[in-house]
């Protein structure tokens, strides 16, 4: 076992890990941050997306020791400081951008990274930017709508499908 | 997956020293290797991460063209190469998905040499030079078959140098689940002629379509290849496409790439 330290959601954390411990496992089992979901564990589904030094990555395909010292942000760090939903999270709720909710943490983290790079994306850019995240419930339409609303664009004319 | 010792050196010299231990393997972005280790297709005793070595990262113009550090993630190539070599930047920006592009690297891709990966087509069509800790290898000598390269034990890619063509384009027909190329074609036109490299089709991995190169060197137009045929012999056969289907795609995508580059 090796000691690993990093900053997660603004707090310095550390824990004992093996070489093979994945970032997703360290977050969930080591830190109890179970908002990061493990769906496929093969980097296909995107439920485990977190930010490492501001970039979205699939935490099931990154070793914890490889991001020692990094700034990590998870879904637990996305709400406003008073605990209310952030603009992006609220937009998911407003637009019914989730049904079972399993993919939602990864969707929110990917969407947040997308909007940080491109604050006013087109619908096509949102769909392209979410290619690494799979949702088996919604058909994506309301997720895309939520991301567009969070970017400040008028989505009232986009029909719910 | 089996456990291993993890080391993350800060210099190339330390990484090369660590790679001398028995069962040591280099880890770059890990977007293929970690999945392989989960399936126990790979079980290194020691993993040597190359992601903490500044000298292996970055994109810049230098002698011979565009220099891309081996540990540069695809997303950074997509951003930084756009003004110098747009076709290469577009290739990098179309690999996998955004999260894979934030971790996966060019060095990892070409060291692995997956027969359906995008970068081998760009490297081979560009006539790039693969720079290792020991030598410089021409792309034509580097790719040697399925998951096989000219790299020796203990040798790692440090950068890739791309001569910048006059015109170029990469067109890939996505395999939509994996986002690898079902088939992809990179066309590059230089003062010395045209090079056409095909990925996702050849049973021995990336290859050059030399008949198309000759035709396009004489006349750089999609019509120049209209009379050519591509043999399906030896092409990849899987549930996503037959050899005949891939052979058809090679010609169609080459035409599209020429149109996109023109």
From TrEMBL, chain A:
**Annotated TM spans:** none
What keywords are annotated for this sequence in UniProt? 2Fe-2S, Iron, Iron-sulfur, Metal-binding, Oxidoreductase
Domain spans labelled 2Fe-2S ferredoxin-type:
2-78
Name the Gene Ontology molecular function terms of this record.
Answer: 2 iron, 2 sulfur cluster binding; metal ion binding; oxidoreductase activity
Quote the Pfam families the UniProt record gives.
Fer2, Fer2_2
- PANTHER family registered for this protein in UniProt: OXIDOREDUCTASE WITH IRON-SULFUR SUBUNIT
Q: What is this protein called?
A: Carbon monoxide dehydrogenase
The top of its lineage is:
Bacteria, Pseudomonadati, Pseudomonadota, Alphaproteobacteria, Rhodobacterales
From TrEMBL, chain B:
- The record places domain FAD-binding PCMH-type at 1-167
Any GO molecular function: oxidoreductase activity
Q: Does the keyword Flavoprotein apply?
A: yes
Keyword annotations of the record: FAD, Flavoprotein, Oxidoreductase
Name the InterPro entries on file.
CO_DH_flav_C, CO_DH_flav_C_dom_sf, Diverse_Substr_Oxidored, FAD-bd_PCMH, FAD-bd_PCMH-like_sf, FAD-bd_PCMH_sub1, FAD-bd_PCMH_sub2, Mopterin_DH_FAD-bd
**Nucleotide-binding is among the record's keywords:** no
Name of the protein in question: Carbon monoxide dehydrogenase
């Amino acid at each position: 076992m090796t000691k690993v330290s990093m900053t997660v959601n603004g707090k310095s954390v550390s824990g004992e890990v093996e070489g093979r411990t994945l970032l997703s496992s360290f977050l969930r089992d080591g830190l109890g941050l179970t908002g990061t979901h493990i769906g496929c564990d093969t980097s296909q589904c995107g439920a485990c997306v977190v930010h490492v030094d501001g970039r979205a990555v699939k935490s099931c395909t990154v070793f914890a020791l490889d991001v020692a010292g990094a700034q990590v942000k998870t879904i637990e760090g996305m709400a406003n400081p008073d605990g209310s939903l952030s603009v992006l999270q609220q937009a998911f709720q407003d637009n019914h951008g989730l049904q079972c909710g399993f993919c939602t943490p990864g969707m929110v983290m990917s969407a947040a990274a997308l909007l940080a790079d491109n604050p006013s994306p087109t619908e096509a850019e949102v769909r392209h930017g979410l290619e690494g995240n799979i949702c088996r419930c919604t058909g994506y339409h309301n997720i895309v709508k939520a991301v567009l609303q969070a970017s400040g664009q008028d989505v009232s004319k986009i029909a719910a499908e | 997956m089996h456990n291993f010792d993890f080391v993350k050196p800060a210099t190339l010299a330390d990484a090369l020293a660590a790679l001398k231990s028995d069962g040591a393997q280099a880890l770059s972005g890990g977007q293929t290797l970690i999945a392989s280790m989960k399936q126990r297709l790979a079980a290194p005793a020691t993993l040597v991460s190359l992601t903490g070595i500044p000298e292996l990262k970055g994109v810049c113009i230098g002698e011979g063209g565009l220099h891309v550090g081996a540990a540069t993630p695809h997303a950074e190539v997509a951003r930084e190469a756009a003004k110098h070599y747009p076709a290469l930047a577009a290739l990098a920006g179309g690999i996998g998905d955004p999260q894979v592009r934030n971790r996966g690297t060019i060095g990892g891709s070409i060291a692995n040499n997956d027969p359906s990966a995008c970068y081998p087509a760009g490297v081979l069509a560009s006539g790039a030079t693969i720079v290792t800790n020991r030598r410089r290898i021409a792309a034509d000598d580097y790719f040697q078959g399925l998951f096989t390269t000219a790299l020796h034990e203990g040798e790692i890619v440090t950068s890739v140098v791309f001569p910048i063509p006059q015109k170029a384009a990469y067109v890939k027909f996505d395999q939509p689940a994996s986002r690898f190329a079902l088939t992809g074609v990179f066309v590059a036109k230089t003062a010395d002629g045209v090079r056409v490299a095909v990925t996702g089709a050849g049973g021995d991995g990336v290859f050059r379509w030399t008949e198309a190169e000759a035709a396009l060197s004489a006349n750089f137009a999609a019509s120049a290849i209209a009379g050519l045929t591509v043999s399906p012999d030896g092409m990849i056969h899987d549930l996503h496409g037959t050899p005949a289907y891939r052979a058809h795609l090679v010609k169609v995508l080459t035409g599209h790439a020429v149109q996109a580059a023109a």
